[in-house]
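Reopening this ticket.

The earlier resolution said the output was attached, but the attachment link was broken on my side. Pasting everything inline this time so it's all in one place.
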Amino acid sequence: MGMKEDIQTFVKDGLLTLGNLQSTVTYYASGTPSYNATTGAVTVSQTAYSILATLVRYRKEEIDGDAIRVEDKKALIAALNLPVTPTLNDTLVDGANTWIVVGANIDPAGALWILQLRRP
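Inline output:
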């Protein structure tokens, strides 16, 4: 196992130690839009994944009111737990709360996704 794989495993295991700070959420990955020429409708398929995520608020210093809003949240997800690459407008559902992905970054080791979430 290489160093990158070791780091990915350490991050995944480290997030598991957060215990009740993590929750099982449903991540809906959006597929490629398709256009129906007959109806003029554009449809997007979604694939659901049940994953572990830690949702946290942004620190006051990070909030600028425009790019990052007060009500936005961060989702910390071990890359090994998310079988797809997040894209903008994917959806994350945590209980009764639905969030839209408005930003996605991964750390240099490819171990931790940090998603910016916003209510629709």
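Reporter confirms the inline version is readable. The CA atoms of residues 67 and 102 lie 9 Å apart. The chain has one domain: 3-33+52-118.
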